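Hi V.,

Quick status before I head out on leave. The structure for the redesign project is tokenized and pasted below; the design run finished overnight.
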């Protein structure tokens, strides 16, 4: 469940916190943070701002269509997740 903060703060579809990603994916904090680090290194995501209780709010730079097959292929190798799953779990609109 998302806590009251997540329900009340107005954010765009491409913005999220680590806790939200954890809730969406059921992955451990460590795995989610590793995944974010990977995306950050490839220029797909950045820390947009610090929110309530110092929660980092990440912003996705590209929509699903713009993410290269190479990134997805490499990501799939490390994290064993499909492209469609990626789009669904991380709320990227087509």
């Amino acid at each position: 469940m998302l806590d009251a903060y997540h329900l009340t703060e107005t954010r765009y579809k491409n913005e999220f916190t680590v806790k939200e990603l954890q809730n969406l994916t059921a992955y451990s904090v460590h795995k989610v943070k590793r995944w974010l680090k990977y995306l950050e290194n490839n220029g797909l995501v950045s820390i947009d701002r610090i929110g309530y209780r110092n929660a980092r709010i990440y912003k996705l730079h590209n929509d699903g269509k713009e993410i290269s097959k190479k990134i997805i292929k490499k990501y799939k190798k490390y994290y064993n997740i499909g492209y469609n799953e990626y789009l669904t779990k991380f709320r990227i609109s087509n």
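Above is the designed sequence. The domain at 4-89 is CATH 1.10.10 (Arc Repressor Mutant, subunit A).

G. will cover questions while I'm gone.

Best,
W.
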